[in-house]
Automatic annotation (TrEMBL):
Entry annotated with the keyword Ligase: yes
Name of the protein this chain belongs to: Lipoate--protein ligase
GO MF term list: ligase activity; lipoyltransferase activity
Pfam families named in the record: LplA-B_cat
GO annotations of cellular component type: cytoplasm
CDD domains, per database record: LplA
Origin: domain of life: Bacteria
Keyword line: Ligase
Pathway given in the UniProt record: Protein modification; protein lipoylation via exogenous pathway; protein N(6)-(lipoyl)lysine from lipoate: step 2/2
Amino acid sequence: MTTGSDVRAAFTDPAENLAFDEALLRVASGSPVLWLWRNPVCVVVGRGQRITREVRVDECARDGVPVLRRASGGGTVFHDPGNLNVTLVLPGPADRPLEALGQVMSAAVDQLGLVPRIGDRGLFVGDAKLCGFAVFRTKTGLLAHSTLLVETSAGLVGRYLTSAPPDPRPLDSHRSPVASLAEHGLRPGFPAVEAAVRAAASQLLGTFVPRPPSAAELARQRALLHTRYRYPSWHADGAQRAA
């Protein structure tokens, strides 16, 4: 089976996390890469989405919640320390990357004691979404990532994200009721949740060997911070600065 990398990195700034997330894809490893990470409180919109359609802007401004943009498509998500982000980078071309990520997250949630089902752009327990999925492709690989609600409350998510607009457009988020592991009665703690994700990834995709970030990944992170993630226009409307 394949041997991949389990990258162990932690950044305190959400812009640095988003830049490193993309850097893992841009460096284009020849084997799978797994990264588990958490953000401070923020809202993250998909690549082509309009903030005014997705985010309760006034509430975010009132509470000092930053609104950022990622490079992948998919819907808008709320991040906080109660939410585990899972990044999976696969060498390309690869078929059905969201299916691979869905299988990993489904197996992990099953290990934790719930009965999941893969639905529209996410993983559900009953009628409530537990994980959202998004994907980003380049010529050399693809990045699939997920948010897993571990302790974050549904009410907190709804405080900062809009409800479904009356005039749906193709890039709008698909709103669903959400519920965290804690709201399903599970409080295993983050070490146990991370261990379940790592075990599921290894079972389905091969061994993942822990390692620190590479010099190339950190260099690409710095470049992306300059052209995108420290550039206000990127987060506002997706415009990036010339390299």
